[in-house]
Amino acid sequence: MNTSTFFEGLVHEDRVHRSIYTDAAIFEREMTHVFGAVWVYLAHESQIPHNDDFVTARLGLRPLIVTRDMQGRIRALYNRCTHRGARICRQDRGNARTFQCAYHGWTYFNTGKLRGVPWPEGYACDFGEPQFNLAQLPRVESYRGFIFGTLNTDAPSLSDYLGLVKKPMDEWLERHPGAKVAVREANRLKFKGNWKLAYDNAADGYHVVFSHRSLLEMENRMQTDPGKGMSFYMGKPDEAPMYVQSFGRGHHFKDKRPNLEKRPGALWEKEAAHPGMEFFETRIREKAKDRALRALDLAASEAVNINVFPNLSILGNHIQVIQPIAVDETDTTWYATAVLDEAGELGGAADDVNALRLRTQEAFPNFGEVDDAVNFEEIQKGLAACEDEWVYMHRGLGIPGRVRTEADGSLKAPATDEVFMREHMKEWKRLMESEPKISVLR
Amino acid sequence: MSYVNDAFYDELVCSFAAWPESEIGDPATREECRMLVHREARLLDQGRFEDWLALYCAQCVYWVPATPGGDPRREVAVAFDDRRRLEDRVFRLRTGHAWSQAPASRTVRLVSNVEVFPFTETAVLVRSNFLIADWRAGETRLWSGWCGHRLRRRDGRYEIEVRQVNLIDCDQNLRNPSILL
């Protein structure tokens, strides 16, 4: 494959070729040239709070065990026995100092080091050699609780990789007491479609009133003034103060906060009805007193979509992870987050905030994402029309003054602009044309 | 709608935590409860969502946990609907713009292993297994698991106060979970 001319033909300024969503060979290349080359989100530190905790994850299709080892260091071990290749860990999460393969009993420490094999006298080799340890990602770093890993020894530091997207991530964290959240289970969804369909959608302000029409109607069924939930997008969304921003490296941001009045309580007022709302709101007001509006805002869905290429989206209060399964199958897992209030900033109302916040987080996966997922599946089906080659993402392109370059180099555009898709496709093309320096550690 | 409060959550978590060994002795009560869960299944298969809602009491919950027996105050659920949200759910399906159900799934459900247990003076617990065939957009998928019903006696009949739907794959990624289970 002459990669530069090949991908040149697939990714144009205004459109991309259908095959990037449908071709199994392109998908296979992505699993290393994209998912192996950049920092990929693996897990949240709150999922492995104690030494010896682990949670399984994947890097592309590679099965991983993300462990906090006996010294407290976070590692991403290949969940693959060095001997014959079986997955050694078959639980999604737990606490274990060692992992023993169920097939022939080879046992490893949670640092990846081989602990021993049954009847070693039957081998001539030296099991102290590192080649028999579990493979692991050479680089694992966290950014404020978000654990990322990469196979690429030439990748920049995680902090540099994130670059400008750190600012909205910081703001998202800092609205919480102690700038901390904890993962509390997830709404787990799956669709029969390519993973990029989910990422293309992550900052898309154009689909909202169409794909989510039923949700908008539902959220506002009891209101005379239709101002709840996703109503930001009704009327002329491009003339609203919200915007989409593209940060480079494929990261982007949909910021709906400018649509809200800058005062405590404004976010909470956007929420439609949720189970337990009346009881827990009353209790939060009693307990948190002068901090009640801040506490209630924490129960409401934050008005941001923060997308970290290629697989992480912070959507409202969710940490959404996009996991490719096959060229036409993707899991999107919407991890719910809860408030931790170690310093008592919320006057003892944290449990009440969470009892509400978990209910507000169930709404979008139940009543919004299911409709998007069906639309993604319909794209995948539509793309079977092989002579009809192009998928367009040129909304806003070529309109003078619509996309503005900020002083930091980011691009800002009105809410329904597709500039963010064009930008992450450029990054995708650059990665698919490049040869990352891939290695594992043992 | 203030009935979803701490006491309500506490009772909810306890209700389905342990099941008695012995069913209710009275065959008429068992039969009445069996008929109710079968009727519920039929109404859902027939798409009669408003009639289905009428089986539920004013202070009800439809709960699909994301982990078996998890406390909904401490973890998110696949679905946790009070009466108002259940009405939201039906309203959304009726808009005609809920693309995950437009066109709608064709479903047929088998409900079996119905057991009726004592709970309080005015309420019983019913446990049953289900298998739902869900045909939509050219494919048939299966949903399976067991249901815990808490039925409340009011005005000479049982109403559904709580239905806990325990999918066997509740902690896995689910494709288009938009039907009423």
Describe this structure in words.
The complex is a heterodimer of chains A (442) and B (181). Chain A is α+β, with helices and mostly antiparallel strands and 442 residues long. Chain A has 2 domains: 40-146, Rieske Iron-sulfur Protein (3-layer Sandwich); 163-429, Naphthalene 1,2-dioxygenase Alpha Subunit, Chain A, domain 1. Chain A is 28% helix and 25% strand. A 9-stranded antiparallel β-sheet of chain A has the order 12-18-17-16-15-14-13-21-20, sandwiched between helices. Chain B has a single domain (6-167), classed as Nuclear Transport Factor 2, Chain: A (Roll), CATH 3.10.450.50. Classes of the chains: A alpha+beta (442), B alpha+beta (181). Strand 12 of chain A pairs parallel with strand 7 of chain B, so a sheet runs across the interface.
Briefly say what this structure is.
The complex is a heterodimer of chains A (442) and B (181). Chain A has 13 helices and 21 strands.
**Strand portion of chain B:** 35-45%
Main sheet specs of chain A: 9 strands, antiparallel
The level 1 CATH classification of the largest domain in chain A is Alpha Beta
**Biggest interface: chains and residue counts?**
A-B, 46 and 44 residues
Q: Overall mean pLDDT score of chain A?
A: 97
Question: How large is the share of residues in beta strands of chain A?
Answer: 15-25%
Q: Supply the number of helical segments of chain B.
A: 4
Major β-sheet annotation of chain B:
6 strands, mixed
State the helix count of chain A: 13
Shape, per Cα inertia axes of chain B: globular
**Rg of chain B computed from alpha carbons, rounded to a whole number of angstroms:** 16 Å
**What is the number of independent domains of chain B?**
1
Strand segment tally of chain B: 7
Q: Which secondary-structure class do the elements of chain A indicate?
A: alpha+beta
- How many distinct domains of chain A? 2
Q: Overall 3D geometry of chain A?
A: globular
First CA to last CA of chain A: what distance?
32 Å
Largest sheet, spatial ordering of strands of chain A: 12-18-17-16-15-14-13-21-20
Low-confidence stretches of chain A: none
- Helix fraction of chain B? 25-40%
